[in-house]
Amino acid sequence: MSLDGLRAWIGLVERKLTMRTRVFLVLVAIAIGGAGAGIVLAIDAQDNAVTKSDLQTVRDELTGTVAPAGAPQTSELEAELETLQAEVAELRSEAGVPGPGSGESKEPNSGTKDSGGAGPADQQQGREEAFEQFKEEHSK
Known about the structure:
The protein has helices spanning about 5-45, 50-65, 75-95, 120-140. It has about 140 residues and is mainly α. It has four helices and no strands. It is rod-shaped and about 135 Å long. α3 (about 75-95) packs antiparallel against α4 (about 120-140).
């Protein structure tokens, strides 16, 4: 075998080896980049993960066991309702209108016109004034 033939064959093997090395290095670089991206995504997922206590809180809110933050409590609502009922009762007594379930007539002065009481027009005006006063007090 001639020396020139061996040199050509070794050059061919060297070119193939160089090409394989370059391809291998590119694949290694891609693998390292993918691994780095995977690590970053894993760390991000761990930071943003929902804990069991967060999940339980959401479940409780959905079932109604726990009131959401900022929602008024039942006791606060009941106290406000009692206050409003007392104000309505006071306004009714000022206007001369009996409360619900009292069994009295809706018109306390439904007798003769000379009874000395206020007429229906005066009562209506008094109710409107009381209502306006009520609206002003509670619009604040």
